């Protein structure tokens, strides 16, 4: 199976290999694989953070200038003209 860090199955296989190697007694290689796993997971989290940041920026531009909740409440709660 090819390595795709964004694929949860790839990360689970990496964890499985790391556990098997640790069980066999090769602690240094298991530690190295734990570092690879951490790097991949943090990379995924960083990509998600960047996506969320871009979305927030785009949404800010989309809603800029629209009335706030308080302004809408005041508009709809005031008495109708007599």
Which tags fit this structure?
mainly alpha; 0% strand; 82 residues; single chain
Description:
This protein has one domain (8-77). With 82 residues, the protein is an all-alpha fold. The model has no long low-confidence stretch (mean pLDDT 85). It is built from three helices and no strands. Helix 1 packs antiparallel against helix 2. The chain is rod-shaped and about 85 Å long.
Whole-number mean pLDDT: 85
**SSE string:** HHH
Taking the alpha carbons of the first and last residues, their distance comes to 74 Å
Shape: rod-shaped
Compute the number of structural domains: 1
The helix fraction, in percent, is over 70%
Low-confidence stretches: none
**Structural class estimated from helices and strands:** mainly alpha
Strand content: under 5%
What count of helical segments does DSSP give? 3
Rounded to an integer in angstroms, the radius of gyration calculated over CA atoms is 25 Å
Largest sheet descriptor? none
Oligomeric status of the shown chains? single chain
Number of strands: 0
Task: Please give a quick description of this structure.
By secondary structure, this protein is an all-alpha fold. The chain has helices at residues 8-24, 27-63, 69-77.
